[in-house]
Amino acid sequence: MNEEIITTRNGVRRAVSLFSGRWKLEILWLLNQRMHRFNELRRAIPGVTQHMLTAQLRELKKDGLVRRTAYPEVPPRVEYELSDDARRLQPVFEAILKWAGHDPVLT
Fold first, then answer.
1. Domain that holds residue 89
2. Coiled coil where (predicted)?
3. What is the pTM (predicted TM-score) of this model?
4. How many whole angstroms from its chain centre is CA 105?
5. What's the number of domains the chain is made of?
């Protein structure tokens, strides 16, 4: 098989694995808007359970797309934001919104 095809296929597989998960794209889209705390994300995503949100955030952090900052306070405060690498996805989010018929410039 052509080396270029193999490289492309591996890139596609990597992208699909990064974004696979029922809530990952929605989490990334929300974090693309601004930093969020856990309960803000949970309230903003109808139907997500605490368990699933925790699992998806852990995977996104492990994959280097989300940065988690825990502050040594009582009560504990944890904030989530996109990593610098994930911020490069801005054009991808805009393309998806436009493709879906929701051009952010027009809404």
1. 22-99
2. none
3. 0.79
4. 21
5. 1
